[in-house]
Specification:
The protein is an all-beta fold. Helix content is 0%, strand content 51%.
Length: 116
């Protein structure tokens, strides 16, 4: 069982990035998926979530209208489209999968740096 994030990097303020999370060893469509981020010295925070049933999404106010989470169940992947990036979006971004049976998987993280 594995989650692997990709797509992070350095981007200028106002720019965009799309993060990808590839699941292997389980069927992503049956899991609630989410993206978190963490900066040194702070707790990991939720930035986007999408339900396995119905596809309802949730975002904190800090990213609402700028970030979009979506999934491709055929490819067994989930994505985070990030637009109008700000310096305060700089963090390590993690993908998370939670199943109804209590299974809880995390990826290794991908660094996003927003700087001019």
């Amino acid at each position: 069982v594995q989650l692997v994030e990709s797509g992070g990097g350095l981007v200028q303020p106002g720019g965009s990035l799309r993060l990808s999370c590839k699941a292997s060893g389980f069927t992503l469509s049956t899991y609630d998926m989410s993206w978190y981020r963490q900066v040194p010295g702070k707790e990991r925070e939720l930035v986007a979530g999408i339900a396995s049933v119905g596809g309802a999404t949730v975002y904190p106010d800090s990213v609402k209208g700028r970030f979009t989470i979506f999934r491709d169940n055929v490819k067994n992947m989930v994505y985070l489209q990030m637009n109008r990036l700000k310096s305060e979006d700089t963090a390590v971004y993690y993908c998370r999968a939670r199943g109804v049976t209590g299974a809880d998987y995390w990826g290794q993280g991908t660094q996003v740096t927003v700087s001019s």
